[in-house]
Design brief:
The chain is mainly alpha-helical. Mean pLDDT is 80; it is low at 1-31. The chain has helices at residues 2-12, 22-32, 42-52, 59-68, 71-86, 94-97, 101-113, 117-148, 150-163, 172-179, 183-207, 211-219, 224-261, 267-277, 280-308, and strands spanning 35-36, 39-40. The chain has a two-stranded antiparallel sheet.
Length: 315
């Protein structure tokens, strides 16, 4: 109301008095609006609407606001560069122990020219996506069934809670015996790491569906599978996607551990091989690439969430 009154007063050529009586302001505003046969003129209405509608933000300002939140990352890189470059005056070995970002970029360019870097990146991405996809395909139905059926949950929960505390790294010796050294062994380790977060979050999503939603579905005639498909599954989707995001992050940790111990390729293999060669720039490059790939995959996951659940406003 204040904005409309101010806009109308500006149309009439006078600014509103903030200290005047509100009723007097209303009458003054009505008097300030140009009238035609007792009604506001179209020009006056258009001017008021133009004042109320926010002006479009320039494209450059929108782009600047999108990258403004990266200031802390930029500051971190600048401090890292300064410490690595000028810290060698205090400790000459600092250049080897903590290579500068520019040195890491030079290492990336070197490995790209040798056609090694992309091979390791694609090998790690293939293993992570395959393992997390398998964990989702098996974990989501199992978790939903456990959340929807208390009897089934009581039967499966003891076995699940017995296996879940065993670290995925503890399975590496057996996985090497079962699958040998290669993709199958590493995918199995990543699968174990990502499976349990997906199961537990899916179970929580199906179990904690709002009872009012279930009653509403029942009152509308939904039964059995239809109730599960139209009420329970949409309500559980936020938890399911949360489990997938958590499983994806833990899967990257398990990937590095698996590739560090036994792998013919991948970013973890590159890090371990650089350790034997005492190439700390390669080690940091592998770590940075894992962080960047994890960030990109999580961003893509959030876009899928927005497309799949347009009604959900969670982050």
């Amino acid at each position: 109301m204040t904005t409309a009154a101010g806009a109308a007063a500006r149309v009439g050529g006078r600014a509103p008095d903030r200290h005047a009586d509100p009723r007097g302001s209303i009458h003054a505003t009505e008097a300030a609006i140009p009238m035609a046969n007792g009604d506001p003129t179209p020009q006056a209405i258009a001017a008021i609407v133009a004042e109320l509608v926010p002006r479009p933000v320039p494209r450059w300002r929108r782009a600047l606001s999108r990258v403004a939140h990266l200031w802390l990352l930029v500051l971190f890189l600048v401090v890292w560069e300064l410490v690595s470059v000028y810290g060698t005056r205090i400790d000459p070995d600092l250049g080897v122990m903590l290579p500068a970002p520019t040195t890491v970029i030079s290492a990336a360019v070197e490995l790209l020219h040798r056609h090694v870097l992309l091979t390791n990146i694609f090998a790690s991405l293939y293993r992570v996506l395959l393992a997390v996809g398998a964990a989702t395909a098996l974990g989501v139905p199992l978790g939903l069934a456990m959340g929807w059926s208390p009897r089934f949950r009581r039967a499966v929960d003891p076995l699940l809670e017995f296996v879940r505390p065993i670290p995925p790294l503890a399975w590496i010796p057996l996985s090497i015996l079962w699958f040998g050294i290669g993709n199958a062994q590493i995918v199995y380790i990543i699968f174990l790491a990502a499976f349990f977060p997906v199961v537990l979050n899916s179970m929580a999503g199906a179990r904690d569906v709002d009872a009012y939603l279930v009653r509403a579905g029942l009152s509308l005639g939904a039964r059995g599978g239809e109730l599960f498909r139209t009420v329970v599954l949409p309500a559980a989707l936020p938890q399911i996607f949360t489990g997938m995001r958590v499983g994806l992050g833990i899967g990257w940790m398990a990937l590095v551990a698996g590739e560090l111990i036994a792998a013919p390729s991948g970013l973890g293999y590159m890090i371990n091989n650089a350790r034997t060669l005492f190439r700390s720039d390669y080690i940091l490059l592998g770590m940075v690439l894992i962080g960047v790939l994890g960030l990109i995959l999580d961003f893509l996951m959030r876009q899928i969430i927005r497309l799949t659940m347009p009604w959900y406003h969670g982050k």
